[in-house]
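Why do we care about 3D structure at all? Because function follows from shape, and shape follows, mostly, from sequence. That is the central idea of this module. The next example makes it concrete: a single protein chain, its amino acid sequence, and then its structure expressed as tokens.
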Amino acid sequence: MKLKLTIAAAAVIAMSAFAQAQQGPPPKVPKPTKADVQKVVALIMADKAKVQAYCELSKINDQMAEAQGKKDQKKMEALASQADALVDKIGPEYEKLMEGLDQVDENSPDAKVFGDLFAPLDKQCGA
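And the structure:
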């Protein structure tokens, strides 16, 4: 996944966490390591249903970026709901990873490494 899409996915998860803020603050997730990313990518690639959900999430992230550019809050909310369902299908490991990626500066060397680790998975989506 391109890093911007990764960040967008993290934003979707953050929006979901914000919606659940009434239940108390979520625990802070640590910044992921290269091994964390490799493990999650391998878990997703091992399951065709998870790969499909990941690819669908990538498409929704593109639509969310477009809606955000148009400041279409209603569409953003609808897409966020769809994205949440897909994140659930991919699994809790992916969700935790995305929350941790929130702490990575998208211009950092780590961000480049993490983005490159998603490349084999992105190829599964035709990206």
